[in-house]
Amino acid sequence: MPTPFLRRRGFTLVELLVVIAIIGVLIALLLPAVQQAREAARRSQCQNNLKQLGLALHNYHDTYQSFPPTCVKEANQDQPGSQQATFWSAFILPQIEQGNIYDKIQGMGFGIVWNDSGNNQNLLNTKIEAYRCPSAPDANTSTQEGVTHYRANYGVVTSGTVGYNSSHGTNNHYMDDGSDNHARFNGPFLRRNITTRFADITDGTSNTVGIGERWNHKKTEESKYLNYWYIGIPNSQDRHSAFSGSTGIPLNSPDTGEVGYAGFSSQHPGGVQFAQMDGSVRFVSENTAANILSAIGTRNGGEVVSLQ
């Protein structure tokens, strides 16, 4: 008796295409969720960084009875080609458990020039995670490890110059250079060689931005010096955006507004994270009204605003 032929049925081309289409749809649905989860993790790490920096400012104030200056600069460094010297982020290194790096900088001197590769090269390649936002484009691709994505807040740059009468810090590293231009900066961090105290922040520390995110939009040869956490750049029109940011410029704006100044920006969708002067961290929408954004940047403007 002949053995009956067993017909084996496989996928038809149409069925195979349907399965592939279904898999494609599932991937399309899941991929954004995966990307959002990754960004949420990166944003959380950035938040932790800012929290650490905010607490470091408080610990620094406990030690020196003032906050660090935005930058320290010698009096003769206003000449073309000079440097902006050492930034605030270098002075709080002991407060973020990086005292060994601080000791190296102190040993070389805080006035070393920005392009002195003999002294600076090792520091250019010193990676400090607390200064790096993982969402920034160059967080893991920069050829120089010593980048930072955080800037001190100098508030809203105003026109005109008047005398500045704030209380100064007692640390002898930082002395007011006598410039009336300090009056143009109304945030908790001012121009070079001058410090502020808690008493100067009369708007309240919980209402005042201290440190915010900023990533370098520019790709010129000189602009690469805008990224470093510890040392200055040539005395150029971009110099202030190397160490500070302004709440008088819209968030996530690539434009610098007045020459030499820049706003805060990030790669987090929809806004920027800030450390307040009380040590708390908050996310501020890029759609925040200009008057509110300006108000949270001033230390003593007397504004009554809410981000809720």
From TrEMBL:
It comes from the Bacteria. Keywords: Membrane, Transmembrane, Transmembrane helix. The keyword Transmembrane helix applies. PROSITE patterns: PROKAR_NTER_METHYL. The keyword Transmembrane applies. Residues 35-289 form the DUF1559 domain. Pfam families: N_methyl (PF07963), SBP_bac_10 (PF07596). The chain crosses the membrane at residues 12-34. InterPro entries: DUF1559, N_methyl_site, Pilin-like, Pre_pil_HX9DG_C. This is DUF1559 domain-containing protein.
